[in-house]
Amino acid sequence: MLKRRLTLILLSGLSMSVFYLLMESFPFSFSLDAIYIVFFFGLVFGVSYGLFALPIQLLLNKYLDSRKFNIIYFVAYLLGSLIVYIPIYGVYNNYEPFYANSAFYLYAFISALFFWTWDSIITSRNNVE
């Protein structure tokens, strides 16, 4: 199960880093630096998922049935993502109000969506048994 959770964290982190790279460097030009950036940000996002989303997943698995694509899991991941992104967004955007920018909501939603999707594919109870 540890191997599945590590895979979940790494795939979620890499997915988010590719999304981040595409959004922040549009139009995208492929280079060797882009590959390094994807892996670096994949590690950064992976650590973030491990620190914040994984405890939510463990708590939900303890009390709820972990079916594939359970909407309650997505809502919990989305709320966690919104809470985590508030201070991060403030620091990286010169403390402008997070509620005034749609990018805040987009990144929080996509972050939760990636983790929820990979969680449903990799670690749902239907796959483990």
Specify the number of helices: 5
Average of the residue pLDDT scores:
86
**Helical coverage, percent range:** over 70%
Q: List low-confidence stretches.
A: none
Largest sheet entry:
none
Number of beta strands = 0
What distance separates the N and C termini?
11 Å
| CA-atom Rg in angstroms | 15 Å
Shape: globular
Give the SSE order as H and E letters.
HHHHH
Approximate strand percentage: under 5%
Sheet/helix structural class: mainly alpha
Short key terms for the protein model shown above:
mainly alpha, 5 helices, 129 residues
In short:
The protein has 129 residues and is mainly alpha-helical. The chain is 79% helix and 0% strand. The chain starts with a helix and ends with a helix.
Q: Would you kindly provide a written description of the structure presented here, covering whatever features stand out?
A:
The protein is mainly alpha-helical and about 130 residues long. The protein is built from five helices and no strands. The protein has helices spanning about 1-25, 30-65, 70-90, 100-120, 125-129.
